[in-house]
Every structure is written in structure tokens, then in C-alpha cells.
Amino acid sequence: MADTRIADIRITPIAFYDPPLLNNAGCHQPFALRSIIEVETEDGVIGLGESYGNSMTIDGVRAVAEACRGLDVTDLNGLWARINATLTDQVDGYNTGAGRLVLRVGGAIEVAMWDAFGKATGRRVVDLLGGQVRDAVPFSAYLFYKFGQHQHESGPDVWGEVLTPEQLVDEARRMVDLHGFKALKLKAGVLEPEAEIAGLRALRDAFPDAPLRIDPNGGWTVETTLKLLPQLDGLVEYLEDPTVGLEGNARVQAATDTPLATNMYVVHPSHLPPNMAQDAFRVILSDHHYWGGLQASRELARVCEIWGLGLSMHSNSHLGISLAAMAHLAAATPNLTYDCDSHSPWQTDEVIEGGKLPFRGGKVTLPEGPGLGVTLDRSELARLHQNYLDCGFTERDDATEMKKYQPDWEFARPKF
Ligand SMILES: O=C([O-])C(=O)C[C@H](O)[C@@H](O)C(=O)[O-]
Ligand SMILES: [Mg+2]
């Protein structure tokens, strides 16, 4: 029988090229930070995970790695016991200010444990998670306003500047032509709300049948959102995090039949009961990277099913190990009610062999082979790790990046 006890856990920080995408927090830096996790068994099988590249996550995984030595890769209860004994449940403030370090660190290692077990036993992760319920996983086109180029670049990237409705439609057209996406998500909270609604309307005219979504990342006040509702009702399939907090969003949800969705204010099991009590969000955008991995995300899906909540998937900038994990999880989740988000089309670098997993007709087919079905391209890992060492920063900071373009720009949430 295979010896699936953990012999070693390694984490390698990486940085990959990212275009100047805009959001309520500012502008994406020229590199997105990420980390690659390897869980090696006593038999030398290596399971892969991918997670955040901020220092708290990297330090957290390193801190628990030693404690997990000797644990069987199937022993998820043992993993959580060891992590809880090693880390305090700190709020790390990364991205949404609500992520809990324990769940991030556990999630990062847990995915690699599933992959290692699958590779050691010849089983796919989707089968270990309960079985495949869909042939391929549907994703949405993730549309961003953006600058044409980073400050140090001599010319625009292939997407060019996107700040007007016409440019937004061109971006969407290119995304759809390249990848076949059906649903279109607009990252908002960047321009004046009326300008963003004009962008949505232009998308509706250009893509009459596409399900639309808009995500201001809490960038609108309750009052602004209430005023915009008559324009949004019937236009979007859901309204994502329009304003700040459970209470504010509950006031909006009370005024509309359009479901509100979140990846910002229900990001931990403890947020679910108050969300139900206040009827703030009716769609949860799950994310195994901060919910504590694949098993926890399956449990979250079950909770959503029991309580009649819709379910989809959130994404940060990521590479192929994360996309494979997202696809296995979604393929094993019966009640996925909306197409998932993915930043993958914005990324030109890759860390898995064979290049990026393709979207066909907007869907990802699970890669063949045991575990997650992906293997690490070690020369790319080395190159992207060197990027991390050379890029000059170790934390994501969209606000500072934005100020390079607009020195008087200030972060505010809500802003409009
Ligand atoms: O709210 C969301 O969907 C996200 O947080 C996704 C990403 O973080 C996105 O906003 C970004 O990277 O600019
Ligand atoms: Mg969101």
C-alpha cells in the first residue's frame, strides 16, 4: 500500500505579469503575487496547491509545515488540529479585510493533500470530492476597466485602454471570441456609477442574451445603490457587493428582487447565520482559497442548498493549479447556480506543464489524469520565483499603484 504520510511541505512565492486592471481599491500592479504549495509524501508523490502570495499566507504555511510532517494526506481533521495549534486565527486584512489566516493556510495545504492522494491512488480529485456532476465547468467573462499600459511600458498591451462603453464592448467581444463565455461580469466601483451603468447597457445592446453582473466591491453607498436599482433590475442576473457590510446590503436586498451576491461580506462560516437573519445576500461566491479548501467548499455548497442560497465562485488573479482545483470543485458541486469567475484570461504566464487550461465555449474541461490532473513546470516555477524576488514588492497594493497614474486618487469604500 502507498505510504501517503507527509514527508515535506514546500511553498514557493511567485510573481506573474498582470495588466493594469482597475477596481475600487486602485490598479493592479505589474505583477500579481501568488504561491505554489507542494506536499510530498513518504513515497515521493507530490501534490500541488496554489494560493495567495502575501507574506502572511507564505509565513503561515511555512509555520505549519513542520507540524504536518507524518500526517496522512487523507487526515484533514489532523490538518486542522495542527494548524489551529500553530496559528492564531488572525484576520490578515488581505484584499477584502475579512480573510482568516487559518482558513487560508489550511486551504492552501488541503488542496495539495487531495492532489497527492489522488496521484498516489490513481483517482481524480473530482471523484474524491463526491463524483463528477457536469462534463465541463462554465465560467463568465471577467470584464475590467483598465489603463492601456503600465507606467514603465512603452505601448499598450493587447487589450488596450478600457474606460468607455465602446472600449468595454470591444473588450467583451475579444473575451467572448477568444473563450466563448456566455455570462459577462463587470468589475465596477471605478468610474461614476452612471458611467458604469452606461457600460452595462452597451454590453446589453451588444450581447442581448448574455447574463450580466456588476461588482462595485462595496464602492456605492446604500443611497446610490437604491437610486440605481430601477436601472439594474431586469438588466443583471445578480448584483455583487454593491455596498458595504451585511446591514447596508440587506437594505438594498429588501428593495429589490434582483439577488445580491457576495465574496466580501460572507467569507467565513460565522458570517452565514447573520446573513440569513438579515437576508443580505442570496448568492454566495465561494472561494476554496479562503473558505478552507475543497472539503470546506463542498460543505458551504451544502449549506447554500439547505438554505436556498445561490452559489457561484469568486476569483483573484491566479494560474493553472488554482483553475484546475476550481474546476474539480465546481464539477463535483451539484448546486452551482451561476457561471464561475476566473481571472485566467488576463494572465499570460503559466506554471503548469502544457500551458493554460483552455476555455472552450466558456467552459473548462477537467484535465486528464489523477489528482488535479496538472503537473508543475519547474523551469517556469523558477522563472516566476525570480520575478517575485526581483519585482520589488511582497504585498499587493492597488492604491499605491493607482496613485502613480492619478496622484490625488484616494481609496474610499463606499466611494460614490
Ligand atoms: O470581488 C471580487 O470579485 C474580487 O475581489 C476579485 C478580484 O480581487 C478583483 O477585484 C481584482 O483583482 O481586482
Ligand atoms: Mg466580487
Automatic annotation (TrEMBL):
SUPFAM superfamilies: Enolase C-terminal domain-like, Enolase N-terminal domain-like
The name this protein goes by in its record: glucarate dehydratase
Record domain Mandelate racemase/muconate lactonizing enzyme C-terminal: where: 165-259
InterPro entries: DgoD-like (IPR034593), Enolase-like_C_sf (IPR036849), Enolase-like_N (IPR029017), Enolase_C-like (IPR029065), Mandelate_racemase_C (IPR013342), Mandelate_racemase_N_dom (IPR013341)
EC number, as in UniProt: 4.2.1.40
Pathway(s) this gene product operates in, as recorded in its UniProt entry: Carbohydrate acid metabolism; D-glucarate degradation; 2,5-dioxopentanoate from D-glucarate: step 1/2
Pfam families hit by this protein: MR_MLE_C (PF13378), MR_MLE_N (PF02746)
Top class in the EC scheme: lyase
Catalytic activity: D-glucarate = 5-dehydro-4-deoxy-D-glucarate + H2O
Any GO MF annotation of the entry: glucarate dehydratase activity
